[in-house]
Design brief:
The complex is a heterodimer of chains A (470) and B (109). With 470 residues, chain A is of the alpha/beta class. Chain A contains 16 helices and six strands. Chain B has 109 residues and is mostly helical. The longest helix of chain B has 30 residues. Chain B is built from four helices and no strands. The chains are: A alpha/beta (470), B mainly alpha (109). Chains A and B meet through helix 1, helix 2, helix 3, helix 4 and helix 8 of A and helix 1, helix 2, helix 3 and helix 4 of B.
């Protein structure tokens, strides 16, 4: 390593340090924006250092310059355009697309490295190939897996688990082909073998995500995020670039932690989610609903009386709230209540949205101050003190059946909504949630059901409260 | 195993541990921006994509460099932009109207 490349590596370390500091500043919403700026600065430093390296190398052809600059500019435009236009409800799709392109780019770096090495006659043996094939396999799986996940979230591909006979056998076969061919590459440099590895991995990515249901997407996105990070780190090994190694490891850690949090929040193992569970009919035994149980429905005026004379209200939002685009409606109702001196907070289950923390972003967009957004462990002890718990579009995460063994959701951490003094549930129908079981909360003697679309229901309730207190 | 590889592995393992330590402290409220920020960070693969240019002298090389640069740049630019956009929405207090804490002021007639 000559002094020039050493200096460049040092600059890369500065960039990597910026990434770490940037992530560290995300430990509080107050400093998070600065964190993002520090991280952006690190990225700018790394890109400039790379351009200097390219100029210094002096071997980039005119076509080479054109290709990378035009490619990077077009990519930036596409990225910025989607970042500006994306709706917050569609955030998981966008993150999934970024996972796809990141994983794809990492795989391409390794593919090029491999082909270039081979054509220069140096051969590709031993350790370089381990990271090369890992990069190609993980990057390719991430690429197609993330595209399928984005398609499912967008609704282009059905959100239902896609299951067919022999699917698992096919998955296993693809994995064996990819890994087997990769091992063959350790001994014999071969471009056709590389092509087989790529194709098998791409197919595996599709087959891995297709059988997974929409409700499990928070786990899948986190996992693919971890994969992308790992692929980028492997690309760093391939081209001996410390910035890529550090950045990839950081993302791998982040994705890994979030995957575990999400899986824990659903009380399911990763293997169980990947192999298929909810909605596939192999775990959900419908609980015999108490047929004599009384469902009580309530009118807007009665809701208004309960809310207006409460001293503490806890709102429990679920993805149904976002699906009905009712975030602003709930924020407005909450403001009316707060103006009467009522203490309002939001109880957010970790899997309330379609990706980790999704519900918080949706409510932040609706101008809900973040100190009111409470995590499950923090808010659960407060339910017994709440006069009203208002459940909007949340189902399985409020089902007390999770506390008993023998149901499809047994052991899943839930919000203790049933501890509140009174419970109001806004719901369009009595249809069951993803777990396919009846929610015992709805037949609780303290529960009143308000059957309507969430947006409409909240508008009616807000109007009723305003009329009442006027 | 070469010294270079050992160095790389050391960096990888230590970075992984730092990542676990730092990211474990991020509150659930910020998990979506965190994932988005992590997303933009892995856009560093752009450096790798640009470096293809150093040795690319064939059509296949140019095509790979183009696609890789396009993908990685979309990742970087879009990732940082959308993370910033999200974080801007997180406010301690609502922009208009009374907020939590207003009840103690008791200014209502």
């Amino acid at each position: 390593m000559n002094s020039f490349t050493t200096n460049i590596q040092l600059v890369y370390i500065v960039a990597a340090a910026c990434f770490v500091v940037g992530l560290h500043l995300m430990n509080s919403p107050a400093t998070a924006r600065r964190g993002n700026q520090v991280s952006t600065a690190g990225m700018a430093i790394a890109v400039v250092a790379t351009l200097i390296l390219l100029i210094h190398a002096g071997s980039v052809t005119a076509t080479g310059w054109t290709v990378i600059i035009v490619g990077a500019l077009l990519g930036s435009v596409a990225g910025l355009y989607s970042a500006r236009r994306v709706q917050m409800t569609a955030m998981p799709q966008l993150v999934s697309m970024f996972n796809a392109v990141g994983g794809g780019a990492a795989a391409l770096v390794a593919v090029y490295g491999y082909m270039h090495d081979e054509s220069s006659g140096a051969g590709v043996l031993g350790t370089t190939t381990v990271t090369t094939v890992l990069d190609v396999i993980i990057g390719s799986v991430t690429f197609t897996g993330s595209l399928v996940a984005a398609g499912k979230l967008q609704g282009t591909i059905t959100g239902q688990p896609v299951i067919f006979r022999g699917g698992r056998v096919l998955n296993a076969a693809l994995a064996v082909i990819a890994v087997g061919t990769a091992i063959f590459m350790f001994t014999t440099a071969s471009q056709p073998a590389l092509l087989i590895v790529i194709l098998a991995s791409l197919a595996f990515g599709v087959m891995m995500v297709l059988p997974i249901g929409g409700a499990d997407m928070p786990v899948v996105i986190s996992l693919l995020n971890a994969f992308t990070g790992t692929a980028v780190a492997m690309a760093g090994f391939v081209i001996t670039n410390w910035a890529l190694i550090v950045a990839g490891a950081l993302v791998g850690a982040s994705g890994g932690i979030l995957t575990k949090l999400m899986a824990d929040a659903m009380n399911r193992s990763l293997a169980n989610i990947i192999i298929g569970g909810f909605g596939t009919g192999d775990s959900a035994l419908p609980v015999a609903a108490a047929a004599d149980a009384q469902i009580r429905s309530i009118a807007a005026d009665d809701v208004a009386i309960q809310l207006a004379y409460a001293s503490k209200v806890i709102i429990v939002p679920g993805y149904g709230l976002a699906a009905a685009q009712a975030q602003h409606g709930v924020a407005e109702l909450a403001q009316v209540l707060e103006s009467r001196g009522i203490e309002v907070s939001y109880a957010i289950h970790p899997v309330a949205g379609r990706m980790p923390g999704h519900m918080n972003v949706l409510l932040a967009e609706a101008n809900v101050p973040y100190p009111l957004l409470r995590e499950m462990e923090e808010v659960n002890p407060e339910f017994p003190r709440a006069d009203v718990a208002l459940v909007i579009g949340a189902n399985d995460v409020t089902n007390p059946a999770a506390r008993r063994p023998g149901t499809a959701i047994s052991g899943m951490p839930i919000l203790d909504v049933d501890q509140a003094k009174s419970i109001i549930v806004i719901k369009r129908s009595m249809a069951s949630g993803y777990a396919g079981i009846d929610n015992e909360l709805y037949v609780n003697a303290k529960t009143s059901m308000y059957f309507a679309d969430a947006k409409k229901a909240l508008a009616e309730m807000t109007a009723a409260v305003k009329t009442l207190v006027a | 195993m070469s010294t270079a590889l050992v160095t790389d592995l050391t960096i990888f393992v230590l970075a992984l541990l730092v990542g676990i330590e730092v990211i474990g402290k991020v509150p659930a409220t910020l998990h979506t921006p965190l994932m988005s920020a992590a997303n933009s960070i892995h856009g560093i693969v752009l450096a790798g994509a640009l470096l293809i240019g150093v040795t690319a002298h064939s059509v296949v090389g140019y095509i790979l460099a183009f696609i890789a640069a396009f993908f990685a740049a979309a990742n970087v630019a879009g990732g940082y932009a959308v993370t910033g956009r999200m974080l801007k929405m997180f406010r301690r207090r609502a922009e208009t109207g009374p907020v939590k804490g207003a009840e103690s002021e008791g200014a209502r007639p």
